[in-house]
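=== Structure Prediction Worksheet ===
Name of assembly: unnamed complex
Input type: mixed (protein and possibly other molecules)
Chain count: three
Listed entries:
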Amino acid sequence: MNNPDRVNLNEAQSISAEQPPKSEYLKSIILKADNITLKYGRHEVLTDASFTVEAGDYIGIVGPNGSGKTSLMKAMLGLITPTGGRFSYAGEVRDNRFIGYLPQKVISGDPLFPAKVREVVAMGLLSSKRFPKHLSQEDYKKVDGILSRLKIGNLAEKKIGNLSGGQQQRVLLARALVSSPRLLILDEPTSALDPKVRENFYGILKELNEQDGVTILLVSHDIGSIGQYTKKMLYLDRTVVFFGTYGDFCHSQDMTHYFGPLSQHKFCWQHDDLPETATAKPTFHFHAPHIHVDHVHAHGQSIDHSHESDEGFLEESNDELQRVGAKEPSARKTESSDKEARP
Amino acid sequence: MTFIESIQQAVQYDFILKALLVGSLIAISASVLGLFLVLKKYSMIGDGLAHVSFATVAIALWLSASPLVVSIPIVILASFFILKLSEKASMHGDAAISLVSSFSIAMAVLIASVAKGFNVDLMSYLFGSILVISNFDVAISAALSLVVIVTVMFFYHDLFAVTFDEEYAQAVGMNTKFYNYLLAVLTSITIALGIRIVGTMLISSLIVFPTVTALQVSKGFRMTILIATVISVVCVVLGVFISFAYNLPTGAVIVLMNAIAFALAFLIKALRR
Amino acid sequence: MSYLIKSRLALGIILFTALIFTACGTANPEASSEVPTSETPEVSETAEKPQLVATLFPQYDFVREIAGDLVEVSLLLPPGVESHSYEPTPKDIAGITEADAFLYTGEVMEPWATKIIGNLDGKSVKIVDLSQGITLLASTHNEEGHEGEEDAHEDEEEGEAAHEEGAYDPHIWLDPNNAKIMVSTLLETLIEIEPENEAVFRENAEAYLEELTALDLAFKDLFAKSETQTIYYGGHFVFGYFAKAYGLTTVSPYDGFSPDAEPTPKRIADLIDAMDQAKFKVIYYEELVDPKIARLVSQETGAEMVLLHGAHNLSKEELESGTRYLELMLQNLEKLKLGMGYRE
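=== Predicted Assembly ===
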C-alpha cells in the first residue's frame, strides 16, 4: 500500500522539463510513469515505459498477450513494485483512496457466496476508512446512489451469485465507483459480456468520463474495438510502442511501419459510420505533432519524419470528420498536451 | 417422564448448566469464524488444526505441562505454516491442511507410545468431555468467545472483503496478509480451546456444519453468520438435553442435531424454488 | 533460499527431532533402574534363572511372593500406563517369545494376547491363562458400542475388532478368593519351569495364601460391621468380582469396563442423585487416571474424593517402593471404612 516509489506530484519540485506549454486546456496530471520496468520472475515484461495520464483522460491500454498490460496495471495499483523507474501520483490519488478498480474476473468465481449486492458495493468504500471501520447510513446512501446511477438499484438486495454476467459487471463497476474515485482502472471489463451489454457498459463509462471527469484507464486485448470507445491509446509490447490520441496514431508513419496500413487504419477508428462513436475521435490541426517513439520494437530505430506527406491526408479526413460531426472541443485534448513524455 | 420434565430435571445439575454455557460459547466462536473459513475453502482447517492440537496435548502431557499453554502457540504456528504452504509451496489450502494434519496425528501417536503413560487422558481430548468442565474452562471459554466475537465485529468489513475478493482488497490497499493471519490466529485459539470441551472429532463439525446449513437459506453475508450462530447454539442446547433425556453420549447427539438442521435447511431451500 | 526449500527443511528438522525423541524415549533411564520395567530383560550372564513375563501387576506381584529372587519376572505394562488401552510393542513380543512363561490375565483383559499366542507355536514359552478356574462374571452393565472409542486410540482410521470386554468383566484379581486361585495356577507353573525349587515355592505360596485368606476375612468383617453396602465409584466398573464376593452394590456412571468411554449425562446425573441420597458422602476414584467424574460429583454434592485402587498397574513411585497387592488391598480396606460407615 505505501509504495515508496509513489511520489506526490504536487510536492515534487522537478516535474519534467517537457511540461506541455500552457494552453487553455491545461490539465492536471493524475499519474506519471517514468521509465517503469517490471519483472515477472526473471522475465522482464515491461521495459522503460513512460507516459503521463492527465485528468479526464480516457486511455485504452492494449497490446498482445504477455505485453505487460496486466503487470503495468498491477504496478499502478501498487500490487507489484517496479524494478526500475517510478510512478508519481497527484496527491488526491496517492493513497488508493481515489482509485477505483474493476478487476478482470467477473466474480470471485463462487456462485455460492452469500453476499448481497449492497454489501459487495459497500466494499468499495472500505479503503478510505480507518480502524474501526464502520459503514454508516451515509455510506449506504452512497451505495444506493451509485446503484441507481448505474440503473441497477433494483438489484440491491439480491445475492450476487444470482445475477447475470452483465449485471455482475455493473455491480463491480458500482463498487469501483462508489467512493467517487478520480481515477478508474478497468481490466478487460467486457471480455465476458455480449455485445449489447458491452455497448451499454461503455456508454456508462463515457458518461463518467465526460460528465463526471473521471480519468479512465482501460486495459483490453481487443485493440480492434477499443478505439471505438477510448480517446487515447497506450500500446504496449514489452515497452511503449505508442502513446497518444488515435488521430496521432493514424498519422504516425512509425505505426504504419509497425502495424501495416490496414491494421493501422482499423485500429485508429478514423472512419466509423456511427455518429456516437465519432466522439471518440480527436480533432485535427494542421500541424500534426512530432511523435517520437523510442524503442520501436519492430524496427529498432528511432524515426523522425516530417509531416508534409501527411497534410493532404489530414485535410481529407478532417473534412470527413466534419461531415460526420465532431464533438465540441471542450472535450477534446489539444495536440500540445498530447505530447508523449520523453524520458 | 416427558421431554420437558427431563429438561427441568437436567437444569438442576451444575454440570449440565456448565455444559450448556460453555458449549454455547464455543459454538458461537466457531460459527462466527466458520463462514470465512468455509468460503475461503479452508473447511478442513478445523479438522487439521484439531489434529495439531491433539498432538500438542500429547506433548504437554508428556512434559507434564498445561495442555492449553502448550497448545495455543503451537496451533497458531501450525496455522501460519498452513497459510505459508499454500502460498509458497504450490499447493492449495486443502492439501496444506492435509499435510499438517496427518503429520500431527503421527506425532501424537509417536509421542504417546514413547512417553507411555497417559493414553486415557489423551483420549479424552479426542472426544472432549463437555460434561466435565472445570470453572477454569468456563472462564477461559467465556474470554475466548468474547475475544473472537469482538475481533470479528471490529474487522468485519475487512474480513468480508478479503474473503469475497482478495485480489480486489489487495488492489485497493488492504493488508490482506494481516487479515488472513488474523483469521488463522482466531481459528487456532477457538480450536485449541474447543477440543478440551467438545473434542477433536466435534470441533471441526462445529465450525463447518452450522455455516453450510445457513448457506442453504441465506442471502447476505451478515445474515449467514447470524443464522449459523443461532443454529449452532440451538443444536448444542438440544444436544445436551436430548442426550440427557435419552441416555446418549452428548457429543454425538450434538453433531446429529446439526445434521438434522442441515437437512431441514436443505428442504426449505428446495421448497422455495 | 526459496520458500519451497525452506519449508521442506523445516519439515525435515521436525521429523529429525521426532526421531531423536523416539530414540531417547526407547533408551529411557528407567531401563537402568533396579526395578524391572517394560523392557524385558536380556538373559543375564548369571542367569539360569527362569524368565517370566507378566502382563498385569497382580500376577507380577504374586510371582514375586511365591518365588522371590529365584526367578526373574518382568511387568509388561510400563509404570503409570493404563492397562486397557495398552498394546505391546514388537520388542515386548520378542521378549515374550524368549521367556519361559507368559502370564496373562485372560482373553477378556488382554485380547491382544490371544493374537500373540497364535504366533508362539513351537516356542518353548509356557502360556498361562490366569483366568482358568475362575468363573467369569458376565457384564451386568449395558454394553454400549464404545468399541469404536477404544479402538480409536492409536489410529483413528483403523477399525479393529471389538474388545470382548463388553461381554465379560476382566477384573478377576480384585476378589481375594480369585487371587488365591491365580496363585495356585502360578505355583503349578513355577514348579513346571523350575522343579528344583518346588519346596520353596510351595512354602511361600502357602504363606501367601494364608495372607490372602486373612485379607478375605478382614473384608468380610468390614462389611458385616458397616452401615451401608454401597460403593460410589467415579471410575470405570472395576470392582465387580469384589462386590459379588462381599455382597456389595457399586454405583458407577461408566457403562463399560474401560475408562475411555464417556458416560452419558443421565448416568452422571444418576450418580449425583445417588450420592445426595447416600449417608456417607464419599466418592471413590480409580488409579492412574485423572478423576474427572469424581471431582464433578464432589463439586456438586460436597462428597469427599477417595482413591480406591484397582491394582491393574502401579505408578512409578509405587513400583519402585515395592508396593504389593496386599498393601493395596489393605489400603482399600481402610478407605472403604470411610465410605461404608464402619463401626468397630
